[in-house]
Automatic annotation (TrEMBL):
Gene3D superfamilies linked to this entry: NADP-dependent oxidoreductase domain
Chain segments annotated as coiled-coil in the UniProt record: none
Signal peptide range: none
Residue ranges of every copy of the NADP-dependent oxidoreductase domain listed in the record: 49-296
Protein's recorded name: Aldo/keto reductase
Pfam families, per database record: Aldo_ket_red
InterPro entries: AKR2_Oxidoreductase, NAD(P)_OxRdtase_dom_sf, NADP_OxRdtase_dom
The organism of origin for this protein: Leptobacterium flavescens
Length: 307
């Protein structure tokens, strides 16, 4: 296949889409919607690709950056994405999400997820209420316990809030391999609706046990750090995609990395972060078209490791 950098491939998708042009390699995407997977605890369908807001949405009141992020959110809606993940840890991100979705008139088009990140019952309640105010939500779709901070205390509050209708789902999160066994134990004992953790094609520790534990216990999975902090792109810079990627509607390295993750049956949504509209579109397109089967997943790992 022809060599395209992530920037070149993403911009080709973005500008062709904006102009209403059907690139031959993208033709199949235009006749398909984003693929979905069921949330086990409810059966609700959730699109496979969402959006993380760590760093990228922490822009405060900067007008130019807010305008660009509004375009990101509009493009996300247009291409079938739904889940937006944030946290009080992420600076102004929660408020920026709330302001921009409300200001653009698209506030009801997303699935909102944020986190509680503090110690103590009342401190957690106060923080969660503040997050809901910032994100302009009367009901939060998903409230997660960030990095398992005081999880035993907050899980009781979240169960109560779910019963009262203040939140629709509750979950737990972390971002390191060393946390995976703790996450698995909590899934088995507490049965949260969601778990969020790190997973990428070059960091596959979750495949040892955690993904299967979530699947067996009916816990939906959100994947963070899908690009390993950007290191995946540095490894493949200047490298060509293998020819067989065409069969799986993979048109960029970003889609290669994301399709590897969402093709795992236990994964409900992957949340790459970006502040760039053309990267957002490229990410969303990973949720369209054919997904790799198990044999192809192994071939993807083998190819990547030899690059």
């Amino acid at each position: 296949m022809k060599k395209y950098s992530r920037r070149e491939a993403a911009k080709a998708v973005f500008y062709a889409s904006a102009a209403g042009i059907l690139l031959p390699s993208l033709l199949s995407f235009k006749t398909m919607s984003m693929q979905h997977r069921k949330i086990p605890s409810s059966g609700e369908l959730l699109p496979l690709v969402g959006l993380g807001t760590w760093q990228t949405f922490d822009v405060g009141t900067n007008r130019a950056e807010r305008e660009q992020l509004t375009d990101v959110l509009r493009k996300m809606k247009e291409h079938g994405g739904k889940l937006i993940d944030s946290s009080p840890m992420y600076g102004s991100s929660e408020a920026v999400v709330g302001d921009l979705t409300s200001g653009a008139g698209i506030a009801q088009d997303f699935f909102y997820a944020t986190k509680v990140w503090t110690n103590g019952r009342q401190a957690g309640i106060d923080q969660m209420k503040n997050s809901m105010k910032k994100m302009k939500r009367s009901t939060m779709d998903l409230m997660q316990i960030h990095n398992l901070v005081d999880w035993k205390t907050h899980s009781k509050t979240l169960r109560d809030w779910k019963q009262k209708g203040l939140i629709r789902y509750w979950g737990i999160t972390h971002y390191t391999d060393s946390s995976h066994e703790s996450l698995a134990r909590i899934i088995r004992s507490e049965k949260p609706d969601f778990v969020q953790f790190n997973y990428s094609i070059n960091s596959r520790h979750a495949e040892k046990n955690l993904l299967e534990t979530a699947r067996k216990n009916g816990t939906a999975v959100i994947i963070n750090r899908p690009y390993s902090g950007g290191s995946l792109f540095r490894k493949v810079k200047g490298k060509s995609l293998p020819e067989w990627c065409k069969e799986y509607d993979i048109n960029s390295w970003g889609q290669f990395f994301l399709k590897y993750l969402i093709s795992h049956e236990a994964v409900n949504c992957v949340i790459p972060g970006t502040s760039k509209p053309h990267h957002l579109v490229d990410n969303m397109m990973a949720g369209h078209g054919k997904l790799p089967d198990e044999n192809t997943r192994r071939k993807m790992v083998d190819f990547f490791e030899k690059v």
